[in-house]
Design brief:
The protein is α+β, with helices and mostly antiparallel strands. Among the domains are: 128 residues, C2 domain (Immunoglobulin-like); 154 residues, C2 domain (Immunoglobulin-like); 167 residues, GTPase Activation - p120gap, domain 1 (GTPase Activation - p120GAP, domain 1, Orthogonal Bundle), CATH 1.10.506; 135 residues, PH-domain like (Roll), CATH 2.30.29.30. It is built from 19 helices and 30 strands. A hairpin with a 2-residue loop joins strand 28 and strand 29. The longest helix is centred in the middle third of the chain and has 32 residues. The protein is globular. The two termini are 31 Å apart. The C terminus is likely disordered.
Amino acid sequence: MASDDMKVRVEERLKIKIGEAKNLQCRNANSVHRDVYCTISLDQEEIFRTSTIEKTLSPFFGQEFQFEVPRTFRYLSVYVYDRDRHLKQDKVLGKVAIKREDLANYNNRDHWFAIRPVDADSEVQGKANIELIFEHPHGVGSNSLGCNFAPNKRLTVRVIECVDLTLRNGSCDPYVQVCVVFTNDKLHCKRTKVRKKTACPEYDETFVFDAGEEGRERGGDVVCPETDVEICELQVSVWHNAVGGDVFLGEFRVPLRGLQQQTRAPKNAWYLLQPRSSKNKPNSSCSTPPGTRLSIDNSLGSLRLQVQYTADHVFESKVYAPLRALLLNSVRARPITSSAVYILGEVSTSKMDVAQPLVRIFMHHRQIVPLIRALADAEISNLTDPTTIFRGNTLVSKMMDEAMRMIGLQYLHKTLRPILEQVFMEKKPCEIDPTRVRDANTIQQNSTNLKNYVQSVFRAITESAVDCPALMCQIFHTLKECAMSYFPDNREVRYSVISGFIFLRFFAPAILGPRLFDLTNEQFDRQTNRTLTLMSKTIQSLSNLGSCRSTQQVCKEEYMEVIYKEFCTEAHVRAVRQFLEIISANSNTDMPPVDTPVTLKEGNMIKRAQGRRRFGRKNFKQRYFKLTTHDLSYAKNKGRDPLWHIPLSNILAVERLHERSFKMQNMFQILQQERVLYVQAPNCVEAKEWIDLLTKIVQTNSNRLDRYHTCAFIDGQWLCCKSTMESGEGCTEVSAKESNNLHMTLDPERDLQRMHSLVISQCTRLENLQKMCQIQYTGTIQAGNVVPFIADDLEGCYTTIQQMLECAFDIEQKHRSYQRTLVRDTVRGSKAAPIGDDNYLHASRMNLDSFMRTRREEL
């Protein structure tokens, strides 16, 4: 929902780092340790899982996960599990659950959270849609005693549907129980039919409760209204029909005492399911659901987390036109120190928060090379020692990190993935630190294993120069030329300026954290993690082989010296220099053709057998899918020969599949000319990633479909439109998604929104800087009022800041207008704002505060 003249979309992203846990409870007196791992869930749907840390009550994980949020959610939850090999089942120790609206309070800071217990009431989620109809069939009259009354009050409850119910042991067979409480404390209950295998059941069942009949059951004479029976409360609960006893999924209550309450109750509304009230909760006097909120009670232990949550409300492109023009003008600004890009890089507390959106914006407009050239020139011009070039976390260094990751991700996969898969499969020990091994006699063999792995990586990297993307080569060429122009007498700078990026900031981090670079989706044990760390240390040292410092290198760890000396030969130095020369040679921006297939994504999913007409669970089987730059294939298991190949040119559309087709969530369909392949992803994040990546590929097909069916063809008809023509045209238009490049997702409007948010968050610092510039260029310098960075053109810097603030305040006004419209148009009891949700739209009415008006008056 948005204002009348513009559209707004919300893009959410989560990054969470699981640090460590402490003070976990031991199993028993005989087993004082645990094997611990954590899972990350959106509500109760597991998204990611950490590796298992064995035999400890204070495990250190140090793992980071990030993803685009694919759907709405109420809680981000981290569950802590104990893996029990003897019982062959894992026990949940507790969880940390943070409300979605509270996530911003913990952005980019480490916090210790108390681990809370998990029970049925802490797992409640979902919404229910019901309709209430009150009837007074005989109107208001009077009895023989002269008492006015409304006899035979009747309540009709229509249960329409529920959505997003909690799964229990991977399944959900829900039914709804509807109860009314009368003023005589009697309770009448009715229930719907059970809907099998669905978390979003549709019922459309109606129940009638008559207060008059309840009154007549009491017998005796007619009574006055003061003692007449009335319906005072409606209780609706949702249950999972399970073997061994039904399982509670949530409830809500609607007070109906008196005609006034009945009038206020919405006739048709969505209600948020809540935990059981204390009086209905078995063996419990606690009125608050444990595990659903933060608490200082850490009797179950504590968990250290770092969370970064961003929710971007993105407008149409025209809204950001002034800000876009100001940023793009930075390339032509002279001096660069008075440009918007440079100023934002200096005032921001996090260089990466600036670098990421800037790289994407300038890549979209094909201006990334001249921008990096201008920033690099400004940075190198202030240096006197060539060995310190780009060694710090400056804006241009962070922009290079982001640019290499975006441009070179496919190149990285092609170069490193085969070797890393070999490391994961073989699991050879490579520990060479004498303080970390129990038997010193194994160090020699471990050293040989490590040398072999590093030699394979070295050969793969130095022989991959021709595969380096042309745009990366252009950037490297620019940096090399810039460094050589300022240090013409230094013969080694042409190599060191490039090797620092390609080895230290590209290959080495990818080896150390392959999951962060999508090089694997597997969990690996502590030994494998240590092997990757030692390999990364060695690859980092390769950055010095191109310069004279290679012969003078002193290792920080003595045990690494023997590995390093293996690569200090003339042959290795020559190979590194040749590699650096090739990747920094001037080239055009056309991407070289890729002949060998490169893996883009792979993993286990469940597919429905193709061509089967009969419906059955046996038709669904788990397969290992692999998407490459050539085709999509699946096999029985990883490493096995594919059972089926689908050339990318044969994929005509990729769309989500409605749950009611097979009563399965996170399903999507791959449409081909002859048939449709139905696939279920493990979770909503995986489903979004597969769909987004395949959709980008479909955009390149000239024969892509325009329409599709949202449901499957079962029992002779399409379930969505009831058409019996299996080969007929679809009933729904395919999703319209623009794609700028097959291997890069560029969203310039979203990145401009991130830049706007950055300006707003730093507006106080920008205004202070603007005042300092004005004081200095007007000559009224005061003690302590010195511009905190080198600004060659103070007046130009002042003007740029003025323009940035004006652009940001104009956009902020549109945001506030949008929020007011959203509040006004959102109806309480609608699906977007169900009753019982402490929704921010109804917690407080937002007004355009005086902050904006005051700032604009000052400008």
